[in-house]
Design brief:
By secondary structure, the chain is an alpha/beta fold. The chain contains 13 helices and 16 strands. The site of flavin-adenine dinucleotide has 33 residues, from α1, β2 and α10.
Length: 463
């Protein structure tokens, strides 16, 4: 049998190579470091953690990333095995000794009889005669390969300043204050005239909000980020506010064409709009609210918006260089490039965000490729699982609007319970009392986490 080629020995590539090799199939893993460096990696080790040493919460019963840990362990993940073996104390989080972790991954891959590691930069997409290929070159994919990917996918934007707008769990928005309405009640393709959630502000609230934006602590640019352009010229809200106190009121916060359903006689001075972010409607993003305010300052400032006082953020806004594919348009549900199906993509380049998520996509992609080579194709895990939810988010779980705004609005995201379908039935209080607020959310997460892990174990038993 031909070997499967994996390009990129980061978190996703290392995990994919391991999963394939464990199925008895030969793998050639191509890693460019140390021949060619990236702007963030510091060593030539495989699975180097470029920034923090944390895999985030290890609580599989209450937390979505903890659920992802548990699923990956159930799938025999190398990254999780090496993380567990190199754990450092970090409360409920799984944090690792980064060098010990990277050495453990590298040594397991180097000594596996089915794996060959070649240190070289790949600059061309290999032809179909070379067999299956997994591209796992990460957010810092080398420029030559990025250009080649642009060429074969026909896309015109791959690397950009990723100005990210925050995303909020719908159930945490106070609909006694906010209301559903599209601007001028416009019914677009597939729309209802009530497609947006609107949060009103009076003059005093607006002025206080602008002051907080201008005064809030911002993330500064890293040297190597300075030459990357803004995506589509979209500016962070605090920079718009600095340019003029009225700028936001004439931009993303304009109140025109909107009538407060709770107080129709009072004209709002400014309005913040939120747009549905996933097909399930469990998440809404803040339209035009990309920001580089630091996380602490950001949630504080955004909770000043009427209706968002108790907002729970699925993702906060941010600004950093990022390279990712327009995956919903380009990839099938097996992570294959539709135009060149011998090529799969894995890891952060596909539009997931984070170490654990990149590992999960590497794990799934490795399993898909291995089973294809064995002639026993498998379906992705169900969307009730954390792994299935990420694959679904990447390959089609977003809203594919007829006007084409769906795939374009696709943004990298961490795993969160909003990516999983809601429960068929609400959990009941153990003593029959009415469930409310935080207790209700906590119980819901627990039931969703249990459902996810049960479903994942059933799926993994079939592969
Ligand atoms: P990587 O781990 O980056 O692996 C890609 C590999 O491909 C690298 O080893 C690279 O050298 C290699 N490669 C690239 N091009 C080629 C080529 N042409 N030929 C051969 N090899 C190639 N996530 C978190 O959870 N926590 C954080 O603190 C965090 N901090 C981040 C900081 C920065 C600066 C960046 C850019 C991202 C950060 N992320 C963080 C996001 C993300 O989770 C990590 O980037 C993660 O490492 C992605 O995994 P990956 O396997 O997709 O890519």
């Amino acid at each position: 049998k031909q070997p499967i080629h994996v390009v990129g020995g980061g978190l996703a590539g290392s995990e994919a190579a391991w999963q394939i090799a464990e199925k008895g199939i030969k793998v050639v893993l191509h890693e460019m470091r140390p021949t060619r460096e990236t702007d963030a990696h510091k060593t030539d080790g495989l699975a180097e953690l470029v920034c923090s040493n944390s895999f985030r919460s290890d609580d599989a019963e209450n937390n979505a990333v903890g659920l992802l840990h548990a699923e990956l362990r159930a799938a025999g993940s190398l990254i999780m095995k090496c993380a567990d073996a190199n754990k450092v104390p970090a409360g409920g989080a799984l944090a690792v000794d980064r060098d010990g972790f990277s050495h453990a991954v590298q040594s397991a891959l180097e000594t596996h009889e089915n794996i060959e590691i070649i240190r070289e930069e790949i600059t061309q997409i290999p032809p179909a005669e070379d067999g299956q290929v997994i591209m796992a070159t990460g957010p810092l994919t080398s420029p030559a390969l990025s250009e080649e990917i642009l060429r074969v996918t026909g896309e015109n934007s791959l690397a950009f300043f990723d100005a990210i707008a925050p995303i909020i769990h719908t159930e945490s928005i106070n609909m006694d204050v906010a209301w559903f309405q599209s601007r001028y009640d416009k019914v677009g393709p597939g729309g209802t005239g009530k497609d947006y959630i609107n949060c009103p502000m009076d003059k005093e609230q607006y002025e206080a909000f602008i002051d907080a934006l201008i005064g809030g602590e911002k993330t500064s640019f890293k040297e190597w980020e300075e030459n990357t352009p803004y995506f589509d010229g979209c500016l962070p809200i605090e920079i718009m506010a600095e340019r003029g106190r009225e700028t936001l009121r004439h931009g993303p916060m304009k109140p025109m064409g909107l009538t407060n359903a709770h107080q129709p006689d009072i004209k709002a001075y400014a309005v913040v709009q939120l747009r549905q972010d996933n097909a399930l409607g469990t998440l809404y993003n803040m339209v035009g609210f990309q920001t580089k305010l630091k996380y602490g300052a950001q949630s504080e400032v955004l909770r000043m918006i009427p209706g968002l006082e108790e907002a729970q953020f699925a993702r906060l806004g941010g600004l950093h260089r990022n390279t990712f594919l327009n995956s919903p348009r380009l990839l099938d549900d097996q992570m294959r490039l539709k135009a060149l199906p011998h090529i799969r993509f894995a890891g952060q380049i596909t539009g997931c965000e984070g170490y654990v998520e990149s590992t999960a996509v590497g794990c799934m992609t490795g399993l898909f490729a291995a089973h294809q080579a064995l002639g026993t194709d498998i379906a992705p895990p169900p969307v009730t699982t954390a792994c299935g939810a990420i694959v679904n988010h990447i390959t089609g779980g977003h809203i594919d609007r007829e006007d084409g705004s769906g795939p374009r609005s696709f943004q990298p995201m961490n795993i969160n319970f909003g990516l999983l379908p809601p429960l068929d039935e609400m959990p009941k209080h153990p003593e029959g009392k009415r469930l409310r607020g935080k207790e209700k959310t906590r119980l819901k997460k627990q039931v969703m986490a249990k459902r996810g892990l049960d479903d994942f174990k059933a799926w993994v038993a079939t592969v």
